[in-house]
């Protein structure tokens, strides 16, 4: 489950460095507007500006799975006419505040942006998890798809997507349990993960 980092530790700082923004991270209150929908920050902020003025601030929401991974998600918040930043988009989970890194150099052209992820665990299985997330993103956003809500896959892409989804749930189960690449593969083959679904993953990644 995604969680808001409680403090700006060195791993959060590493992520901010990777984002490349020179602006300071801030904790922002979440005050969800009734018209806003989960994941629809850009359109929601624009709607807010039409009624209440202010402007749109781009940046990155920072999440962590403690001791496993830091994740940055491209995000828009509302800047009030007084200059206060407020997150008006509701979340999947009930949270009161987010950690936000303003990125005034960033631009939004209607395309989705890939989440940035950092392995903070020293467990190479987490790298596999990140590769799976990136591969799914590449598949879903190939060509002009990135501007569309509905995605039409070819039969081959459909098969790859299903296999990636299976690998994602398999690897995330392992990561949460503290398993390693040399642990038994949870698929039940009796082989180590690295010789089983770890191999299958490498082949899948070559196909995308
Ligand atoms: Zn397996």
Question: What is the strand and helix layout of this fold?
Answer:
Elements: H1 10-19, E1 26-29, H2 41-52, E2 55-65, E3 69-79, E4 85-86, E5 97-102, E6 116-119, H3 124-140, H4 155-177, H5 197-207
Antiparallel strand pairs: 1-5, 2-3, 2-5, 3-4, 3-6
Helix pairs in contact: 3-4, 4-5
Bound molecules: zinc ion.
Describe the structure.
There is one protein chain. The protein is of the alpha+beta class. The protein has helices at 10-19, 41-52, 124-140, 155-177, 197-207, and strands at 26-29, 55-65, 69-79, 85-86, 97-102, 116-119. The chain folds into two domains: 10-102, no CATH class; 122-207, no CATH class. A hairpin with a 3-residue loop joins strand 2 and strand 3 (69-79). Helix 3 runs antiparallel to helix 4. The mean pLDDT is 91. Bound molecules: zinc ion.
- Silhouette: globular
Please outline the major beta sheet: 6 strands, antiparallel
Strand content: 15-25%
Number of structurally distinct domains: 2
Query: Kindly, what is the distance between the CA atoms of the first and last residues, rounded to a whole number of angstroms?
Result: 27 Å
- The SSE order reads HEHEEEEEHHH
Task: Characterize this entry briefly.
35% of the residues lie in helices and 18% in strands. It has helices spanning 10-19, 41-52, 124-140, 155-177, 197-207; strands spanning 26-29, 55-65, 69-79, 85-86, 97-102, 116-119.
